[in-house]
Amino acid sequence: MSRRTATRPQEKPALARITLKGPYELSLMRSAGQIVAEVHQAIKQAVKPGVTTGELNRLADALIRKRNGVPSFLGYNGFPASICASINDELVHGIPSARRMLKAGDIISVDVGVIYKGFHGDSAWTYPVGEIGDEAKRLLAVTEQSLYLAIEQVVPGRTFGDVAAAIQSYVEAQGFSVVREYTGHGIGRQMHEEPQILHYLHPDDKVRHWILRPGMTIAIEPMVNAGTWKTKVLDDDWTVVPEDRRLSAHFEHTLAVTDHGVEILTRSR
């Protein structure tokens, strides 16, 4: 689940509050991440025309609990569901509903969070519903690729600015825009820990200079729009859409910085 950024990001840097994880904490985060990955595999199989987002929510909730996890999102700041399900021009934080039925040609972004023995895993993926249009195909491909280009930068000695630059330069070269108002985040015992991670370069963002260190655990989640990067929140006070209401995509993994590079904790094993 993304984190909303302040108007002037990171005016008061919180480097001292970053919690580095040791082997035991990482083992629990791996377990949380694997439950998240399993839920996404089930969601991927279930996404098809005629399925409602409410059904996807029930599927995810049941599987999380079967694996002795707890849905991270349910009740978080009052969020009423176990997953976020955002269709077409909905960027993030869409609320599942028995009345929202998927149609062929839709795209749906599903964000899944799990708590396992006190530690969180968090991953989002955007899925096609049947055959989708050319712009939607390219948007999904570009957004997913921007995530993996960012992940390549998650090694000790690189900076959060390297991560942001990898996303922004690639996405904008493809003619799309990177959302400014929602960010990635640290993750661990809390779903949203320090630091707040921008996916673009901002002159006031002090975090861009911070060096990645072994033990850091972060969620990187580029959100990419076909048109403007500017967003607004709908009347439900949760669902975020681009101002121009064009298509939007969202891909996210939870990552651990290790001595040897990066470990993707929410990737299927």
Summarize the structure.
With 269 residues, this protein is an alpha+beta fold. The protein is built from four helices and 15 strands.
The residue-averaged pLDDT reads 95
The poorly predicted ranges are 7-13
Number of domains: 1
Q: Helix segment count? A: 4
According to DSSP, the number of beta strands is: 15
Straight-line N-to-C gap: 22 Å
Q: Write the CATH fold name.
A: Creatine Amidinohydrolase
Q: Write down the oligomeric state.
A: single chain
Broad structural category? alpha+beta
Architecture, according to CATH? Answer: Alpha-Beta Complex
Strand content: 15-25%
Give a quick account of the main beta sheet: strands, pairing sense, barrel closure. Answer: 6 strands, antiparallel
Which CATH class?
A: Alpha Beta
